[in-house]
Amino acid sequence: MPHPLFVLSPCGTSLLTNQVSDIERKLVSKYANAKQKQEIPTEDLQQLEDLIVRVAERVKSADFQLATRMSAELNAIIKLYNGQIARNSDLHKLICTDTWLGETTANFVASWLGDRGLNAEVIRQVDLQTRDINAFQIALSGIVEWCEQTIPGYKQAGYRIIFNLTGGFKSVQGFLQTLAAFYADETVYIFETATDLLRIPRLPIEMNPGNVIRENLEVFRQLSLDLPCVNIDRIPETLMMKIDNEVCLSPWGDLVWKNTKDKIYQEKVYPPLSDKLKFGANFERSIKGILPDRLILINNRIDQLSKCLETNGQYNPTSLDFKPLKGNPRPPYTHEVDAWGDRDAKRIFGYYEGNIFVLDLLASGVH
């Protein structure tokens, strides 16, 4: 039985610009970065809305032949199925710009697929537009995060991951082409002058940043948590970016970090990132011999707790859940954090010494 497909397709505005007048095409281009239609002058908005109504009616009744002419995204998807689309368990994720026209166009694609029994979802990526380069960089980091949180689960569930890079804007296509090397089983294209689908299988690539991460581990940990850091001189410029005078990981740096962190974090426990946190005398003894996947979780909690203390508790995700103990169930400990909730659920207990929190004991929770 073939694997179900998980198809990721960036969406542009080809549905609105193919087979329309030059005036309409220029209007679409002029307002391509408008987040909401309220930003568009009334006269131009009326022309665009008339165009949208006309395209909506046409695409709804479009057969396969017409759909391939109207939409670059649908052209590739139809050819992916060899022109034989039937209801199935495949999933189609359509990434569009953070704009009114981008989302409108992607919704047309999703509706056409849905009417033919396919499961399609539009993902409007926050800040994805071409007007503001800083916002665009943030959006690319958001796409990396979405891929990391979403795709591995589907891959583990048996889906075949396909990146359809026929549509969308060239700047987004280029970025997703790089991501495809790490997440996709196959990448598909249709070039403008071609009629056949170009299928590129996954290359045997593994992220290998050399010694950059290990030699600058503290800095990468700080940057990934948006904590202040100063020793950035040895970090390659391609892995960082500056937004509003604040240094953070670039989309490439974020990808490198996410693909490397667990390999490093499973080796040993790493020191806190805050002067407000330290290990107690019992801590390392209490975690001795734990499995590598649990050591990853311990290091993640140390990172989270460091940020929690640096932000005076404003950052306290549910996976950390830093809180005081009720009563006095386990002296001298006054607070706990979650270590992990599966298997033999464990907590990490500690107490304050002045303004410094002492992380001291990994143990079962207090009931």
Can you describe this structure?
The structure is a single chain. Helix content is about 40%, strand content about 20%. With about 375 residues, the protein is α/β, with parallel strands linked by helices. The protein folds into 3 domains: about 5-200, Hypothetical protein VC1899 like domain (Restriction endonuclease-like) (Rossmann fold, 3-Layer(aba) Sandwich); about 205-265, no CATH class; about 275-365, YaeB-like fold (2-Layer Sandwich). It has a 6-stranded mixed β-sheet, with helices on both faces. The chain has a 5-stranded mixed β-sheet with strand order 9-13-12-11-10.
DSSP strand (E) fraction?
Answer: 15-25%
Number of strands: 13
CATH class of the largest domain: Alpha Beta
Question: What is the strand arrangement across the widest sheet?
Answer: 3-2-1-4-5-6
